[in-house]
Amino acid sequence: MNKTWWIAITGVLALIAVYAVIVLLMVKLLWAWTIPDIFPGAVSEGLIAGSISWYTAFKIAVFVAVLAGLAGVRRGRES
Question: Which of 15, 21, 45, 72 gives a 20 to 30 Å CA spacing to 6?
């Protein structure tokens, strides 16, 4: 491979990494912003976490992506 391919591959991987960090940051911020307002009693009693870790944000993002993928597959079959 020549040098331009390596630059292109590195650029694509960098964009994927930046996108992943932005998605995880948004999941963390949206959780901390909405969950304590929706379930204030459960958060104060410790039943629901008021903030989540990066790993938990990753698991939630994967879960939502799988659900969205399944919904897209199902919708595609009906068309």
Answer: 21
Q: Tens of pLDDT along 31-58? A: 999 999 999 999 999 899 999 999 999 9
**In terms of Cα–Cα distance, which of 56, 47, 1, 51 is closest to 24?**
56
pTM value is: 0.72
Paired tokens of 47: 């039943």
Angle of helix 54-78 relative to helix 3-38, nearest 10 degrees, comes to 100
Q: Identify the pLDDT of residue 34.
A: 93
Contact 52, 28 (CB under 8 A): yes
